[in-house]
Amino acid sequence: MDTHIPTRAEAFDLLKEYTRDDGLIKHALAVEAVMRYFADKCGEDKGKWGVIGLIHDLDYEKFPEQHCGKTEEILKDHNWPEDYIRAVLSHGWGICTDVEPKNKMEKVLYAIDELTGLIVATALVRPSKSILDMEAKSVKKKWKDKSFAAGVDRAVIQKGAEMLDIELDELFTDTIMGMRQVADQLGLQGADSSA
Ligand SMILES: [Fe+2]
Ligand SMILES: [Fe+2]
Question: Are 33 and 178 a contacting pair, CB within 8 Å?
Answer without folding.
Answer: yes
